Task: structure prediction
Amino acid sequence: MTGSGEDWLNDGLDVTGADSGLWVSGVDYIEGWRRARDSADRLNRALLSAGFELSAVRAVASTNEDGRGIVRLAGWPDAVERLAGLLEALASGHGGAR
Result:
């Protein structure tokens, strides 16, 4: 999944966690990351379809210390506020299920 350019992952949003350097020998991080990446790609496509720029808000694949996939949402506050407003509108019955 790509964003607004080749450097979309390095455009100013800090998408690493405090424990992003933690690796445990013998844990298969690749499988968890692949599953997270598939989910993050799906969410990023949905964000693009809703008119968001991935340079403003995006899903990022990662894993935890056990190798389980994690999808994190990283974004600028204005974009996250806009996304929250859309989700709240869906939850309140304006076009979405609870």
Observations:
- The CA atoms of residues 62 and 70 lie 5 Å apart.
- Confidence is low (pLDDT under 50) at residues 1-6.
- The radius of gyration is 15 Å.
- Helices lie at 29-49, 77-91.
